Amino acid sequence: MNEAAALADRFQHVFGHSPETIWSAPGRVNVIGEHTDYNEGFVLPFALEQRVYAAASHRVDGWVVARSVQVPSEVAAVEAHSLRPDARPDGWLAYPLGVVWALRTLGATGGLDLLVDGNVPLGSGLSSSAALECAVGCAIADLAGVQLSRVDLALACQIAEREFVGVPCGPMDQLAALLCTAGHVLFIDTRDLDRRQVPLDPASSGHTLLLIDTKVRHSLASSAYADRRRSCERAAKWLGVRALRDLHVADLEVATGELHDLSLARRVKHVVTENARVCAAVQVLEEGLLEDLGPLLTGSHISLRDDYEVSCLELDLAAEAAERGGALGARMIGGGFGGSVLVLADTTAEASIRSSIVTAFAERDLREPDISCATPSTGASEHFIATTVAHS
Ligand code: ADP
Ligand code: MG
Questions:
Q1: Is 61 a catalytic residue?
Q2: Chosen CATH of 202-373 out of 3.30.70.100, 3.90.1150.10, 3.30.70.890, 3.30.450.40
């Protein structure tokens, strides 16, 4: 039985009736373009095969009853009209209730029974939170019969995460969950949300994308993120531009001289060169030169490590071991100080890369990372479950 059919069965068991709609939305990997989104720059995510599923049906009493297979102990039963960010629940329920709250202003006002299940790892930087929001958002809009474009739905889910859950995220994760298509990455200009699909089908050219989950998350992560954001805003103001996205590689020498602060100049250098690497990546993918993506990934990692200073021992170790094992390129993904590394390789090098990474971590007595293949997959989709009609 597939995941959606299993969820429909479980829904029937929990709520005593069938779901009226089932949607799923994927986690994502950002191929390149790290710490560029809050500088109004470029990003290049693709959807993972791993997804969050949401099954839902109307409630006439206006209540929201929400459950997750992953967090069975935390169940919500609240009146939809009473939801307020300043009275949000702790834990996972803030995400679906935030989406209910955000979509009420767009006309989806009813109550619902909701059951969630998923296989996107939680908190690993693969954006299970946006997958959850977008699956729930699609189900709610569908139940309410509210016609929303996928971009509007993505922005509503982003508002849910920013204003209800309280996480200062950009729109990339929700746009990726809703708009990505199989065999493509989504090139997004985060300034105006202009975007286009760019082909990425590694298997067709004998390549593979590996995800190395280091399973570490150092406590520095959120304070460093806030610090880097502030640094970028300060530098942009000092240099007289709206955002660092407005600077180009050719401007860096003059900018460095004007900043009088070497550390700040290195932060600027990362953002400016990273935006250039995203554009170069789009070009090589559109020309079908996947192997040329490798050096761009490695360049991104070095820039994040040396100029933006958001890497850590485990990320560097995984990236370096992958390269020693024969990878074409590797880089840390996500905010930094833990999480995962993305590796591009010839399929024939996969075994030696895996063993190089496992050995490097074992030699240092570090926990063995999870290694999996990532395939650019489809964005949010509806699942139709065949129902058996009983005849008397
Ligand atoms: P990431 O988005 O990188 O996975 P976040 O911390 O942003 O990490 O979001 C993870 C949170 O999203 C989890 O702690 C949980 O609250 C919620 N979440 C994601 N998927 C599910 C799920 N299937 N069931 C319940 N909660 C989920
Ligand atoms: Mg998240």
A1: no
A2: 3.30.70.890
Q: Whose CA is nearest to atom 23 of ligand 1?
A: 118
What HEC string does 214-230 produce? EEEECCHHHHHHHHHHH
Q: Check residue 53 and give left, alpha or beta (phi > 0: left; psi -120 to 50: alpha).
A: beta
Helix, strand, coil shares, percent, the chain, to 5: 45, 25, 30
Instruction: Characterize the bridge pairing of strands 184-189 and 42-43.
Output: antiparallel
Query: Which residues have CB under 6 Å of ligand 1?
Result: 52, 68, 70-71, 91-92, 95, 116, 118, 122-129, 132
Angle between helix axes 262-286 and 252-259 (nearest 10 degrees) is: 160
In single-letter form, the type of residue at position 379 comes to: G
What does the alpha-carbon distance between residue 77 and residue 40 come to, in Å, rounded to a whole number?
Answer: 39
Q: What are phi and psi of 108, to 5 degrees?
A: -95, 90
Share of the chain above pLDDT 90, in %: 93
Ligand 1 atom 12: residue of nearest CA: 129
Q: What is the mean pLDDT of the chain?
A: 96
Over residues 160-192, the pLDDT tens digits come to 999 999 988 889 999 999 999 999 999 999 999
Asked if residue 185 lies in contact with residue 47, where contact means CB atoms within 8 angstroms, the answer is no
d(CA 305, CA 337): 10
Question: Can you name the residues that pair with 46 across neighbouring β-strands?
Answer: 29
Q: How far apart are CA 22 and CA 141, in angstroms?
A: 12
Domain boundaries, the chain: 3-196+377-383, 202-373
pTM score of the predicted model = 0.94
Architecture of domain 3-196+377-383: 2-Layer Sandwich (3.30)
HEC letters along 205-269: HCEEEEEEEEEEECCHHHHHHHHHHHHHHHHHHHHCCCCHHHCCHHHHHHHHHHHCCHHHHHHHH
Identical fold between 3-196+377-383 and 202-373: no
